[in-house]
Amino acid sequence: MSDEMPIPPPSDVKKPEPPKDPNSAEGFRWWRRTFQYKTGMGLTPEEKHQYENDYQFILQRKQCQKCYEYRDWILKYSPTVRFMAQQISKLNGNNNGEVLPFDESKIICDVCPEWRSGGFHPDLGILICQNRIRDKWHLEDTLAHEMVHYFDNLKWQVDWLNLKHHACSEIRASSLSGECRFSQEFQRRGFGFQVAKGHQDCVKRRATLSVMGNPNCKDEKQARKVVNEVWDSCFNDTRPFDEIYR
Length: 246
Known about the structure:
By secondary structure, this protein is mainly alpha-helical. 56% of the residues lie in helices and 5% in strands. It has a domain at 159-246. A hairpin with a 3-residue loop joins strand 2 and strand 3. The chain is globular. Residues 1-6 and 185-195 have low confidence and may be disordered. It is a peripheral membrane protein.
């Protein structure tokens, strides 16, 4: 989880009150002060630092609220995410064979210091990086990706420090989540790819980057080698889907 300070409610952040008469001298000072806060011009280093801290608190709180709004909407309306939630629920049933509802509290929004949009922890659940999510559809792909990891962990008891295990789940997550479909790759790379080949190249690239973050991985060369070693079996395994969603 994030090491950031907890976000206070907006009521705890002091903001200048607008004057009753904007044409008065007091009104002029207020508008000038507001302009200074917006631009940073004319502020002392201490005032600028305080303003930046206040701004970050407010921004992070808004990001958090929007992230949870997107999460709840996606859980309700996304076919991919709803299907994955059902499959996870089946694997997460109790000893009596009863299917337990998907625990939405396992999906947490928080600030991430790294350039990533989400993460999965076998004990804690799914993290959505509220400060990295571009829009509702980006959150959908991110959540679907992490739910594939969730599914894999329940079905096969993945050893996440084993590079081959990790690479296999990353290949499946990037391939099945929709994050490597044509429209997403077009936004990232323009016309410089072919649809079928572009999908596989995207999956390999993203899986390699993820494996590079494994503490047992030495470098990019090793990550690429491991991804290639497990590629055929893992890319062709589309469970729990019938086929790859593009």
